[in-house]
Please model this.
Amino acid sequence: MSIGESGKPRAVVLLSGGLDSMLAAELLRRCGVDVVGLAFRSPFFGSAKAERAALRLGIPLRVEDITEPHLEIVKNPRFGYGKNLNPCIDCHSLMVGKALELMEELGGWFIATGEVLGERPKSQNRQALELVARHSGAGDLLLRPLSARLLPETRPEKEGWVRREDLLDISGRSRRRQMELAMEWGIEDYESPAGGCLLTDPGFSSRLRQLMDRVPGFDRYDAELVKMGRQFWVEETLIVLGRRHEENLKIREMALPSDLLLRERDRPGPTALLRRFPRGGVPSEKALEEAARLLGIYGKQKRPLSPEEIIPCDLGGEVEERAEPSSSG
Model:
């Protein structure tokens, strides 16, 4: 382990940007521990909330992209899904394991999270917390400061890096104590606990499940596309329609060289992206007919169009050239 200029022990705190992780970081700081935040991003969640939280707390933050390993656990979670397609136990294990890998580089002595015993029935019960500690490889280097006094003693406590009596014994789904602490410690601006991960959203999970069923080897480009616009499947082709001008532009930016971009011939309206799987295939006549029909229904005329009434989009230099990924999904 390394000792910073302050001479204090250092914790790598997994910072989501929610209240619990902010309180965990602030509590450790009040216990005399130097704190560095660690946040993650993938197609299903970003780091913006964590970045704002780190600024509010005045702590350094490292952001890591975990897209590739995260996609693998979404496809095949060892410990199953939550209510939707959220593999929370596997996800927490992945994040803690990544923190363990980075601990020396970040000068950390141990890892901490904002998890609260019993706050989430599946992923934060006692057994799940033990699974994450064991499966991630962190073992007793993983401290949950908000519930530490209700859990087995960890190495940071045994070694005297933090005093167990200074840690908390919060449990259950009520957030009353956390909100009281936030007020006491002057943490006034924090994010809602909901909406952090798209995998917990029923609508998005339904879309992703359709993709998983049809394209088990989907990649990050497909996962990003499933977040966009109106979506329709015709045989092996996914049709995505923009709902507004900004979304049309975004869909064009996301297009791969093997995708087909279409629009109505004579007037402005939605952009349609057609992606045939395996990637590189040509959409069928049925898919083209459906794309034309949809472009008309959701266009200004509100009537189905024929394939003769649609044309390929002229990108006009608006879209940065992107190489086709080697994975064909």
About this structure: The mean pLDDT is 92. The longest strand covers residues 34-41. The first helix runs from residue 19 to 30.
